[in-house]
Amino acid sequence: MSIIVVDYNAGNLTSVMNAMERIGADAVSSRDPEVIAKADRLIFPGVGAAASAMETLTTTGIGDAIKTVVNAGNPVLGICIGCQIILEESEEDGGVKTLGLIPGKAVRFKDEPGLKIPHMGWNQVNFTREHPIMKGIRSGCDFYYVHSYHPVVPAEYSFAETTYGTQTFQGLIGKDNLIASQFHQEKSGDVGLAMLKNFCDWKI
Questions:
Q1: Residue 112 is among the residues annotated as catalytic for this protein
Q2: Would residue 83 show up in a list of annotated catalytic residues for this protein?
Q3: What residues does each domain of the chain span?
Q4: Measured in Å, how far apart are the chain's first and last C-alpha atoms?
Q5: Interval 4-59: pLDDT, tens
Q6: Is CATH 3.40.50.880 what the domain over 3-201 is classified as, yes or no?
Q7: What does the alpha-carbon distance between residue 70 and residue 168 come to, in Å, rounded to a whole number?
């Protein structure tokens, strides 16, 4: 079984690969669209801006390769900007059309007194629906976040929420074989590693 971690110059690749090694997963990174398209299981991570990420995904063909894996019904995990790029659009950079794999939009946190943007650090994730990626993990655990934008999707695609200031946002979204987190499993200690292990074990 091939587990591919997408390499598209978007940040946290090394920490994701280190996390996969820690859980004993035989994962490889690739920026080759042909290799990515044939993945049995795919992780789509990233840290950065929506416009530059989409430009890279479009010009390299990686975006189409990701869609191929999703359409094949194989498990796909998006992390951070990999959670935002799977939506239809993002408010970032003046508005960016994204991959359109899940209905919804990435929006910026609203300014409020005393609220620091980006949202950075540990925060509680409350599960709203069950999913295999949550197996053995209790609702209310803390995960690590670094972001200024967050997904807004219909309730049927939302699996967990987090509150920052007075704003409650969706931290885990998914559809069929696609699941994506705004938080970083690879930076979230043992609970994050447990979620990555669940993803590797997820049978569809």
A1: no
A2: no
A3: 3-201
A4: 14
A5: 999 988 778 999 999 999 999 999 999 999 999 999 999 999 888 999 999 999 99
A6: yes
A7: 28
